[in-house]
Amino acid sequence: MSETISGFFARLGYPLHNVRWSWGSESDRGSILLRTWSKDLDVKTKTVGVLGPSAQYRKLKSTGGVPERIRHVRALWAGGIAGYTVLVNAVDDNAEDSVIRDFRDDAVFAIERLRELPDGGIGAALGDLVRVTELRKHAETHRTHAANGRLQIDQGAI
């Protein structure tokens, strides 16, 4: 992997707002591409964490990429837009501050629906693996389904 994650996002039409702290981006067509950690993937349920438990974010909601991530999560929770994620691998899965080792640069996962996780976080149920060469066309028809219930963030949890 020689391409940076910010270069990858830009190449796909999802330029990051801030290359230091953005965890995702919106295309000019309104679809969303998130960055998620492979260490947060539950292979059995094909669900990956997209936002940790709200207690982790109360102190951070005005810093870094948290407000932007919350905006993306709200949009995907409501459904009706195309949502995707690229899984990235960490240099050290146990490090407090993760650093990207590598990521698959030929495909992303379609997000089928967001849901609340048992720990209070938010997860994305993953669907089809979409080749990046087909992403633009796929985004024309793919729609993430609305989640069930109200988002904790909107209930004053964050």
Write the layout of secondary structure elements.
Blueprint: H1 5-11, E1 24-26, E2 32-37, E3 41-42, E4 47-51, H2 54-57, H3 66-78, E5 83-90, E6 100-103, E7 107-116, E8 122-131, H4 135-141
Parallel strand pairs: 2-5
Antiparallel strand pairs: 1-2, 3-4, 4-8, 5-6, 5-7, 7-8
Descriptive account of the structure:
The chain is α+β, with helices and mostly antiparallel strands and 158 residues long. It has one domain. The chain has helices at residues 5-11, 54-57, 66-78, 135-141, and strands at 24-26, 32-37, 41-42, 47-51, 83-90, 100-103, 107-116, 122-131. Strands 1, 2, 3, 4, 5, 6, 7 and 8 form an eight-stranded mixed sheet that branches. Strand 1 and strand 2 form a beta hairpin. The longest helix is centred in the middle third of the chain and has 13 residues, at 66-78. The chain starts with a helix and ends in a 17-residue tail after the last helix.
Q: Could you give a quick summary of the protein structure above?
A:
With 158 residues, this protein is α+β, with helices and mostly antiparallel strands. The protein has helices spanning 5-11, 54-57, 66-78, 135-141, and strands at residues 24-26, 32-37, 41-42, 47-51, 83-90, 100-103, 107-116, 122-131.
> What percent of residues adopt helix (DSSP H or I)?
10-25%
Report the total helices.
Answer: 4
| Overall 3D shape | globular
| Rg for CA atoms | 15 Å
Query: How many domains comprise the coordinates?
Result: 1
Beta-strand residue fraction: 25-35%
Attribute tags:
single chain; 158 residues; alpha+beta; 8-stranded mixed sheet; 8 strands; globular
